[in-house]
Amino acid sequence: MIQRAYSREAESSQGERVAPVRIGVGGWTYEDWRGNFYPEGLVQKRELEYASRRLSSIEINGTFYRTQKPESFERWRDETPSGFVFALKAPRYATQRRVLAEAGPSIERFVAGGLTRLGDRLGPINWQLPPTTRFDAADVAAFFELLPKSHDGLALRHAIEARHESFRTPEFVALAREHRVAIVLAADSKYPCIDDTAAPAGVGADFVYARIMGTREDEAAGYPAAALDAWAERARQWASGPAAREVFLYVISGFKARNPAAAMALIDRLGEARPPPPADRPGEPDPDGEDL
Known about the structure:
Blueprint: E1 10-11, E2 17-18, E3 21-26, H1 47-51, E4 57-60, H2 62-65, H3 70-79, E5 85-89, H4 92-95, H5 104-111, E6 122-128, H6 137-146, E7 150-151, E8 154-155, E9 158-161, H7 170-178, E10 182-183, E11 185-187, E12 207-212, H8 225-238, E13 246-251, H9 259-269
Parallel strand pairs: 3-4, 3-13, 4-5, 5-6, 6-9, 9-10, 11-12, 12-13
Antiparallel strand pairs: 1-2, 7-8
């Protein structure tokens, strides 16, 4: 039996469908967050534990750059609370190639490399294409066919982040919908913002994957209040109504030091509950700490 790794929609007090909204940042190991987002004196090996109780999701960057050990996925699962979900950036070895249709072996190695040990912390996989990759309908269709729908009894959900203007075409949207792959909404950046979040109910992927990349140093919460209000309202709309979809929204790039503040401001606007912070206990710095 194939199981989903994350919760499904509930109902509001008015009886409408309401899907979960998960908000976070990219990675959790970043020097400028220490003494800013992370309290002074928090040891590096406890940063994920802390971040996962302030945010509801994190997009793991380390899976893009290098192969992770199965034990790492298990450790990340154990350090995070129930209800927290990771998104994974797929390895560059699968996406940074001239012919996407030839990525099969790289995809298989990644999927079989232990990611299902995240269990119910496993969220969608973001297949981010380089800005130089142009849209080729046959190649993209063949690539989508390579993406497995499940592994080890867990359903897998996929998103594609296309970063070349040639993907801004109805043919790409139709292909993604046919294969139930979400098109990443990449906003506030130099890359094309391809928005398929208004797909009818039952059409395409059953989740929205958004990455907003416009945080600023001169805003304490990364974005002006009006912009945060607008993003919170968009997330609320995506997650409710007849076409309700689970939402994964990440504050990425921009002025990175402000990204956790922006994510927490959005969580507050949406009224999400957060688990209590971890209790103080001694620890040692993680000698293998990476920008994950």
